[in-house]
Write a structure and sequence with these properties.
Layout: H1 3-26, H2 34-48, H3 58-80, H4 98-110, H5 118-132, H6 135-144, E1 146-147, H7 149-175, H8 182-194, H9 196-208, E2 214-215
Antiparallel strand pairs: 1-2
Helix pairs in contact: 1-3, 1-7, 2-3, 2-5, 4-5, 5-8, 7-8
Length: 220
């Protein structure tokens, strides 16, 4: 544990809180991709199912439970809460999830840290899938052409979470003997790169006016 990983985890948790605030305050899920949220459920369940038998620390256990719980709560709110669920538009959220799931599943089986352990397959699959899980969200925002403030803050915090994790990896590489995690590094860099255009437009919008929606034109 170091300050960079802690900051990344806090940005990740705050992203859920901002998302819940957006859905509660606006009573709408417009601009939020259900497909991205469903992918996050798959990611966290596959990665953290060992919470029942692999105790590392109280912090680690709490974070695993929170991520699984928050991701499930988000999907439930988008599909069952009223009036939020009635505002979801499947026509806008049209990116095909299987295009992401199937290649990541294949990679998880073929390229992982222990080919004899099915849980390692699931772990690697979750890492690969997290790298691209934001694509349906960015695709949705591109179709809408703009992103309201709370939604833009949500996507921004997800990007900051990944950015701090990259700094965390650099810090660990410099301070921990023989630290290496190629799968996580490559997937994390790919994930961060997907946020690059959004970050540029986010900062340009906030410089010109804090209350303006973020105009979206992304190469997704």
């Amino acid at each position: 544990m170091n300050i960079f990983r802690l900051a990344g985890d806090m940005f990740h948790l705050f992203s859920f809180l901002v998302l819940f605030l957006k859905m509660h305050a606006s009573r709408s899920v417009a601009g939020i991709s259900l497909k991205t949220q469903q992918l996050y459920v798959i990611i966290f369940v596959c990665r953290y199912m060992d919470v029942f038998w692999n105790f590392m620390s109280l912090y680690n256990t709490i974070m695993k439970i929170l991520f699984i719980t928050f991701s499930l709560a988000t999907v439930w709110m988008m599909t069952h809460a009223r009036p939020q669920a009635s505002t979801y538009s499947p026509d806008d959220d049209s990116f095909p999830s299987l295009v992401l799931i199937v290649p990541c599943a294949v990679l998880g089986v073929l390229i992982n840290q222990n080919h004899s352990d099915p849980f390692e397959w699931l772990w690697a699959f979750s890492i690969y899938l997290e790298a691209v899980a934001i694509i349906p969200q960015l695709f949705l925002l591109q179709k809408l052409g703009e992103c309201e403030n709370l939604t833009s803050h949500y996507v921004f915090m997800l990007g900051m979470y990944r950015g701090f994790y990259i700094v965390n990896w650099v810090y660990r590489y410099m301070h921990e003997y023989h630290y290496s995690d190629i799968i996580v590094w490559v997937a994390g860099v790919v994930q961060t790169a997907l946020y690059a255009d959004f970050f540029l437009q986010y900062f340009n919008t906030k410089k010109s006016g804090l209350n303006k929606p973020v105009r979206i034109s992304l190469p997704v």
